[in-house]
Amino acid sequence: MEAMMTGMINNIFFIIFPIVVYQLLTTTGQRNFFVSHRLSLTILFSISIILCMMFPYQVVSEDYIFDLRQVPMILGALYGGPLVSAVLFLVAAITRIIIGGDGMYIAVLNQLIIAAGVPFLRPMYMRINRLMKVVLVFIISIVSLLFNMLAGHFFFGDPIHDIIEIWLVLMLNQGAITALTALLIEHIQRQEYMFNSLLKHEKMETVSHFAAAVSHELRNPLQSIKGFVQLMKEYDYSRDKQIEFHEMVLKEIESAEDLIDDYLVYAKPTYGQLEASSVSCEVQHVLKIMVPYANGKGVEMHITEMDGNAEILMDRHKFQQAIVNIIRNGIEAMSNGGMLAIAIKSTPSKVSVHITDEGIGMTKEEVRRLGEPYFSSKIKGTGLGMMVTYSIVSQMNGQIFVDSEKGKGTEFRLEFPNLTNSIKK
């Protein structure tokens, strides 16, 4: 009995392992059982059949040695179709002939019937619900073993009344394992369908958020431009006033162009434009630009630590844009003024840029949603700036970590691979 249980557990493992390997090796969102990976799954199921036959489980005596080769054969025929079924039959038949024994002919005949008959049930199998699929594979499994029992009686004179209990146990075991394996496959396919549906929904939601964000931001400069054009059409302004209006129109057009550039940064990655640059030089350049803006808001900016040797692969202009976005958000978070601290640190493996403000801070939910399109903690914000920042950092093989507490401020930590130390190695 112990040997029987060990053999059965081994056979169950041989059946489950192709499905596990399939899950590990295929990409989420691209799993379509036996359709998009027919060759690899046929090979895996063939290995499963061979292992089941090489390591069978034994019942009562040497005269009755059984295995679960029919489980992958039945499921392969139902999910893979006639071609897969034919390949699995050849594998099973050749292996059974090599093993030999008195029951070889019955076994090969049984495998032939499964390989030839089960694929005809495939169209119906694909249309019915999961419960009916489980019932159908259970019945097919029972019928296949029933054929073996009756064939043994007619060809070898095995007394059915002496072995009926053994066959009933085998039928129930194989039927249950076949049904559970089919249920597992159906569960995988259902999860894959739900994942693809969710992915499609998220893409559509992202597009709608983009459309809302861009249209919202473009509407303001366009309305201003429209207003100035209408004024100049209806009234005869002096040349100086017209020049003033022209400058305002150009300013609004530049604002619209900047928004479109931000959108393109996110939509069109900058791979292939990265070069080795000093992090401290680029950060100091940004600070010079942002000092007037910070002073106007009553914010003091301080460098607390600066590693001048730190270098990373970057697109200089995009890196500056990402730092500007974070610093600007930090300044705007301190409506009553405060201090914004910047530090550049490095280890042998990474370079980190720390930007810490004393602003209003964020909740954990707000931190989690940073970088999503059209999410912003600011009343009039669209979230496009932080979304672009996350995209830029990701394109440079970096990561953004945010530590924030409501009412106490926020720290942004940007981490990148350390180019200087990796070159030395």
UniProtKB/TrEMBL annotation:
It comes from the Bacteria. The keyword Flavoprotein does not apply. Keywords: ATP-binding, Cell membrane, Kinase, Membrane, Nucleotide-binding, Phosphoprotein, Transferase, Transmembrane, Transmembrane helix, Two-component regulatory system. It catalyses: ATP + protein L-histidine = ADP + protein N-phospho-L-histidine. Its EC number is 2.7.13.3. GO terms for biological process: cell wall organization. GO terms for cellular component: plasma membrane. Coiled coil: none annotated. It is found in: Cell membrane. One of its GO terms (molecular function) is ATP binding. This is histidine kinase.
